Amino acid sequence: MKFGIISDIHSNLESFEAVLEYFEKNSVDKIVITGDIIGYGPDPVECINLANKNGEIILRGNHEEGILKNDFSRFKKYARISLEWTIKEIGEKIEEIRNWKEKEEYMDIVFFHASCSDIFYKYILKLSDAEEEFKLLEKKICFIGHTHIPGGFKKDIKTGKIEKILTDFSGKINIKIEEGFKYIINLGSVGFPRDGFPFPCVSIYDTEKKEFKLDRIEYNYELTIKKIIEKNLPSKICSFLKGF
């Protein structure tokens, strides 16, 4: 099984379309989206439609949860403004979002938006964060998003040692899933990466070969910026599209 796995699209239609084209070229069997299809960007309706059309597994992220509860108190100002605009844009499509799951499992894999301990909001950034999560992780691999920073952690089950999974100089990851280890792998972000690279994060996990690959691809982010400006969304959002 070849899973195409992505996270944090954030209403960036141009980036999402480029990722789907990548998946088609690489003949993935199932597409998994680990939340935050909406928020920030200018095309929430189009991204909801594409997610529902192409996603085999679709999870809710904190931005979806904020909209469903109509509670934006945990968001920064620019995110809150975007979500208030988004909830007006999507209208009755909010009912489609209610159908998206909080988590999903497949054999030795579990998918969350943020973490095992806090599905929507916890950031796993440090070794101490990962240590707490590994105590709760029953599966071999946990795929998450939320931080917009690709990478992750692996734990030697025998020794208990935890190491970081790092991207290479171009923001990519290519690893073999080894016996005797557990993994927490962050998928980064399709729409708004925060690791200094403006390129969408797109991942494929081959369950037979036990190989995980996170690639970076180009797209027309200038068009997305143009839409953000035209729709009077916060200018802060544009800076993420440029990689900073």
Task: Give a verbal description of the structure.
The protein has 244 residues and is α/β, with parallel strands linked by helices. It has a single domain (2-241), classed as Metallo-dependent phosphatases (Purple Acid Phosphatase, chain A, domain 2), CATH 3.60.21.10. It contains 8 helices and 12 strands. The protein has helices at 13-25, 44-54, 62-69, 77-90, 94-98, 127-136, 221-230, 236-241, and strands spanning 2-6, 30-33, 57-58, 104-106, 109-111, 141-144, 151-156, 162-165, 173-176, 181-186, 201-206, 211-216. The strands form 2 sheets. A 6-stranded mixed β-sheet has the order 3-2-1-11-12-9, with helices on one face. A 6-stranded mixed β-sheet has the order 4-5-6-10-7-8, with helices on one face. α6 (127-136) links the parallel β5 and β6 (141-144). α1 (13-25) packs parallel to α2 (44-54). The chain is globular, with a radius of gyration of 17 Å. The termini are far apart.
